Amino acid sequence: MMDGANTPATAPVLILLGPPGAGKGTQARMLEETFGLVQLSTGDLLRAAVAAGTEAGQRAKAVMEAGELVSDDIVIAILRDRLAEADCAKGVILDGFPRTTVQAEALDGLLSESGQKINAAVSLEVDDAAMVTRISGRYTCGACGEGYHDSFKQPAKAGTCDKCGGTEFKRRADDNAETVAARLEAYHAQTAPLIDYYAAQHALIGIDAMGEIEDIAGKLAAIVKTATA
Ligand code: AP5
Fold it and tell me: Does the active-site annotation cover 47?
């Protein structure tokens, strides 16, 4: 039995790679609904730890506010614990993890202990300049977390969440121009090398993620169907 992961050998494991604002969270939530997979966002897990005031959260808070990467030991421990929960047996979409080679190697180790491997690592290919626009217009429903954008995706009824009817919305503390620049820099320096890492494993699939959200979702759905067939 592996130390942490709970997914059986047949459960799909998909990775979404891409810079801040590439659409990882948007697409992971859509895949979760369509395929019944579990979205594992280390950003969401870390924000929950910060809000709960855990030791890991306290260590992560300032790092996240600066737009830098939280240390590998904290993130790997959080991810390992979440993977051990029963719902992950359905299969997972990793959103924002791994982000360094150390994290990628740790994930390979966790999966290999249960005879699993990654089905596909999908790289969402986007322009840096567009990412600043996407991130600065982003907001989410305070009740259910559904994502919206000032220009690209507004609720059908202004001020009311399409998904749960909530009327409170929030914006992330790290979604400002200065922090976004630091986050993009961290992506290119520490995460982009994973494109070669997964290419070497023959797991990498790159897709143009500059189009409409629904079109990108269609491409991803086709990839998931093929990768998990
Ligand atoms: P995290 O929460 O993972 O943030 P991120 O990677 O910066 O990614 P984002 O959530 O900003 O973007 P996204 O790609 O999910 O885009 P979204 O779908 O929301 O990490 C935050 C911090 O936590 C990090 O900086 C780091 O400190 C720490 N951290 C997390 N994981 C870590 C790890 N593994 N190791 C170390 N540290 C870690 O879309 C953005 C907006 O654009 C939305 O409004 C959306 O509606 C809109 N949109 C999406 N797609 C499109 C489209 N095709 N066209 C137009 N608009 C679109």
Answer: no
Q: Catalytic: which of 24, 29, 47, 61? A: 24
Q: Whose CA is nearest to atom 47 of ligand 1?
A: 134
Distance CA 65, CA 88 (A): 29
Q: Report the distance separating Cα 19 and Cα 17, nearest Å.
A: 7
Mean pLDDT along residues 109-136:
90
Say how far apart CA 2 and CA 138 lie, in whole Å: 38
Q: What is the pLDDT of residues 15-45, one digit of tens each?
A: 999 999 999 999 999 999 999 999 999 999 9
Ligand 1 pocket, mutate which of 40, 46, 81 (most atoms under 8 A from CB)? 46
Contact 96, 41 (CB under 8 A): yes
Name the residue with the closest Cα to ligand 1, atom 20: 43
pTM of the predicted structure, to 2 decimals: 0.91
How confident is residue 177, by pLDDT bands cut at 50, 70 and 90? confident
Alpha helices in 137-228 (DSSP H): 177-186, 193-200, 213-227
As a whole number of angstroms, the distance between CA 46 and CA 57 comes to 6
